[in-house]
Amino acid sequence: MPLVSMRQLLDEAAKGGYGVGAFNVNNMEQIQAIMEAARETKSPVIIQASRGARSYSQDKFLYHLMLAAAELYPEIPLVMHLDHGNSFETCKSAIDLGFTSVMMDGSLKEDGKTPATFEENVAVTRAVVELAHKCGVTVEGEIGVLGGIEDGHGAGGGGLEHVTDPAQAVEFVKKTGVDALAIAIGTSHGAYKFSKKPDGSVLKMDVLMEIHRRLPGVHLVMHGSSSVPKDLQDVINQYGGKLKPTWGVPVEEIQLGIRNGVRKINVDTDNRLAITGAIRKVFVEQPEKFDPRDYLKPAREAMKKVVALRMTQFGQAGHASDYAPVSIEEMKKFYAAK
Ligand SMILES: [Zn+2]
């Protein structure tokens, strides 16, 4: 099966009332972990690469690994998505390479740090939508600004400085025509999201529900949605790591989001923690080992477990064969007819 359209995956998820995890990758082992989890749980899946991942991997390597994944797991609808594109040119280069979905994060200026104005965000996102839809490619936009920093991209802060204004979200969708909308509700990128288990004072699920009420047909995206479970933190610290105590987004809050229009959930940190914990364990328990496969195999297995669990929790498990994937060529017609 070729790489498929994210729009189709999210439309199907909306029909089925479930969410789809979007997992970040930089290398082969991470892609293998996700595909094995997808096969085990029979899940459609979104694999995404940030600008940092594209430069780390020389993105051609990553693209061909994704083609291999599509070939080796033909029963799994698989999307290749650009995470946090910072400019029209970045999105265009991803589309030219063969990504089937792009995020234009116009909530920040091209430097990836300074919050942009609403007008700037609309203009650049609209331009990307026009190009992408002509190519059959899906577009995710962002309104409001996430906290923290991800691969050098982000405004920093705790996440409550630029919570999405629901009225502005409505106007943004109308003016840009995006397929999916990332919103800021107090979450941050990275491991240090919250200093205690989050409640309504720091995680604004009420804002999410209000946006869904006003935009019932729009696929919402939760960024910075790793749960940062304590058991994964503990493995790292047990084997010599030095993580400070931290809290992520509880799975039950994500599930509440899914009941209120969230169709794409971005998860990266949990997988990073799983990989690092597994590698540290081998280094401490078997210091005589030096073949990279001796620690990369358990690392891959640890990530697979986390991904499979999230797929089950988000509800995408069991939905891989619900529908016949639409080709990107057919998606061009779909958008042209709109
Ligand atoms: Zn993000």
What does this structure look like?
With 338 residues, the chain is of the alpha/beta class. The protein has one domain: TIM Barrel. It is built from 13 helices and 8 strands. Strands 1-2-3-4-5-6-7-8 form an 8-stranded parallel β-barrel, surrounded by 9 helices. Helix 7 crosses helix 8 and helix 11 packs antiparallel against helix 12. The chain is globular and about 60 Å long. The model has no long low-confidence stretch (mean pLDDT 95). The site of zinc ion has 7 residues, from loops. Zinc ion binds next to loops.
Assembly state (oligomeric):
single chain
SSE succession: HEHEHHEHEHEHEHEHHEHHH
Number of helices: 13
**Quick one: overall form?**
globular
Give the tally of β-strands.
Answer: 8
Mean pLDDT: 95
Widest β-sheet, arrangement of strands: 1-2-3-4-5-6-7-8
Q: What's the name of the CATH homologous superfamily? A: Aldolase class I
- Rounded to the nearest angstrom, the radius of gyration is 19 Å
Quickly describe the structure.
By secondary structure, the protein is α/β, with parallel strands linked by helices. The chain has 13 helices and eight strands. The chain has an eight-stranded parallel beta barrel with strand order 1-2-3-4-5-6-7-8, surrounded by nine helices.
